[in-house]
Amino acid sequence: MRHFYKTLLLLLLVALMAAPAGATERKTLRYGGGGQGTVVFDGPLHASKGFVCNDCHVSIFPPAQKAHITMEDHFKGVACFTCHNQVVVSRDCGFCHRKFEPAPLSTTFNMADSPEGNVPAPVALKKTRQELQSPLTYEGASTVGSMIMPEAAKLFTAHTGVPFGEMGIAGAGAGLKAVAAGKVSMGGLASAITDKEKAQVVAWQVIGYDVMGVFVHPSNPVRSLTMDQLRAIFSGRETNWKAFGGPDAPIVVYSEALAGGRATVKAFQDMVLRGDAYGKLVELDDAVDCVADVAKDPAGITASSLSFAIPGVEVLKVNGAAPEKAAVQSGAYPLKRPLTLITLQPTGNIQAFFDFMLSPEGQDVVSKHFVPVK
Q1: pTM of this prediction?
Q2: What are the structural domain ranges in the chain?
Q3: With the CA atoms of 50, 54, 59 and 65 taken in that order, what torsion angle do they form, in degrees rounded to the nearest 10?
Q4: Which of 100, 195, 304, 342 has its CA 20 to 30 A from that of 249?
């Protein structure tokens, strides 16, 4: 009788171990895919090759109900890539990532890695993938769109024959939306890319750094402010130039529209205001307009890309450091932000353009107005 119960218990254990394997082998599981298209695990396909669950669990995967695979894992021979290593089985993107064009990825790109549990919805592209590849199109930060893209696009077309079409400068927010909707080939940001933004794109690349300048009228004797003083001015806590050694006159702060999705507004708020709200402002459509108005207003002040400097304004030192290359690279001058290209398709002509922007010729274009990344 004791032998009977031992046998029965053994059979029950075998049945319990086999049940999950058989159940999973009949399922097709979906995972987020880090913004590159949903990853589909085809249980029946693996079962048809003779695999059972225990072949991978727990020797390759821990018995936890989650899947988090980094881009680095793709090349380490771990997790799925124990087999999907280009030797045993293909490692092409389209083999696992559905709705994603299979092509080799350039090492140029940083690949999106969505926060755990965030499964990006499939993108219904406004244009076909072929239309996004030629002519190439751009929307986004005016800093990138007006100061880098025209010359870079001309040189790239001269080398490759790949034409560029429309290049908008409606702002970083508009660029992110246009890329996420599949309306343009690439977009431009002029601030550090956030986790939320990463989840909306597939890849991004920093191509340089923009130095932000603080501009005043030449008649204003103030020539240097600290970060704390800038915070007091732009938050509205200090409203008279007399507090900073200037004339007894109200401070007039000019800014791009706060609701316009402009990267400058966000970057300055992150770096200087550190969570504080802006105070009273004169809001204008574009940074160029802000600088032009300060050139006419002895009481004016504005912050924008240093590339928009014009005759008739003075650029202030910040924390005692001038916005010069050495001070920017050493960190003595604190107001800088990355210039970033983003895309849904890190392949083909788009990949080639991103690679070009990191080439010596592409970096020369960046260095004419900004600090290059290389």
Answers
A1: 0.57
A2: 27-98, 135-373
A3: 120
A4: 304
